[in-house]
From TrEMBL:
Record lineage: Bacteria, Bacillati, Actinomycetota, Actinomycetes, Propionibacteriales
Protein name: YtxH domain-containing protein
Residue ranges of the TM segments: 6-23
Keywords, in A-Z order: Membrane, Transmembrane, Transmembrane helix
Highest taxon of source: Bacteria
């Protein structure tokens, strides 16, 4: 029975860690100003056109 408790706890920790990673990425993404997003998109379009 102890093994299943450890497995369950490990799964719970994994889910929590995934949530933290997603939240950090979301905060980074939302930190861009509209001008920065526009500039980044224009740069990516130019790179894609040249590839």
């Amino acid at each position: 029975m102890k093994v299943w408790k450890v497995v369950g706890l490990a799964g719970l920790v994994g889910v929590a860690a995934t949530g933290v990673v997603i939240a950090r990425g979301e905060r980074k993404r939302r930190a861009y100003t509209p001008e920065e997003v526009r500039d980044r998109l224009k740069t990516r379009v130019k790179e894609a056109a040249n590839a």
